[in-house]
């Protein structure tokens, strides 16, 4: 085990996780979880998703799709602490908070908050889809289609490229907002002249605050759910309560300071591209100018897809 782990770490020094075999990924996953638990004592599934896929050096981060096959348990406890009542109580509290978070990513309350923000940025705003959440309208007379993935990643999936394909067909400028946009997509967005925003946070109703912030213990490492700073909590009537403070909202700032200033140029570039967007990554990227960068994108995508398939099996 120790010898195999040393070999894996050496491989990671020259590449990233998608260069490993499925067996090596499982071994490395167990190693990383053991390190985290030795410090944090007890973690729920979404805490581990955050710690493994969104923190640390880029080459050591797990693609969230890998974790779908690796995170088999709902709660992870450092073995020497497993039967301590205080630890067990914290685990229950964390699971309760996690359950609320997952069930409210796209709840009516949360989407009403997002609608209120977006309607400040988009003229003639119209909701055309709830799952996924898509709003259409205009910005500086440019027709746009905006997809919001609250608390979720935008991945190089057929759904993402179908959205872009439809925008090109309708001559609408695509805007993508997510907790995290997969890194492989940003060079693609740049070539296609598409706007993408990493929020790094999740919008939730204000009522989530008690569940998230009252997880407490004597040990400071257990005092809070690990990713509790990753939330934007707003009351249903937040606009009246916050007033001018709404200007600090990341989505509003993105639209007012980035989108509004640059959308005419990007829209013309998007309409003028000779690339016919397909409903998948390979058929779209294969049309890019043939160079080392394009080759690297395709190889990276294919390695990731192959590893996902092997983990699934």
Q: Round the mean pLDDT to the nearest integer and report it.
A: 90
Q: What is the SS-derived class? A: alpha/beta
For the terminal residues, how far apart are their CA atoms? 22 Å
Biggest sheet, strands in spatial order?
3-4-5-6-7
Number of domains: 2
For the CA atoms, what is the radius of gyration? Answer: 21 Å
- As a percent range, the share of helical residues equals 40-55%
Number of strands: 9
Main sheet: strands, sense, barrel: 5 strands, mixed
Give the count of helical stretches.
13
Q: Which keywords apply here?
A:
313 residues, alpha/beta, 2 domains, two-stranded antiparallel sheet, 13 helices
Structure notes:
The protein is of the alpha/beta class. The chain has two domains: 2-89, no CATH class; 108-204 and 235-312, no CATH class. Helices cover 51% and strands 17% of the residues. The protein has 13 helices and nine strands. It has a five-stranded mixed sheet with strand order 3-4-5-6-7, sandwiched between helices. The protein has a two-stranded antiparallel sheet with strand order 1-2. Helix 4 (64-70) packs parallel to helix 13 (292-312) and helix 6 (108-121) packs across helix 11. It is flat and about 60 Å long.
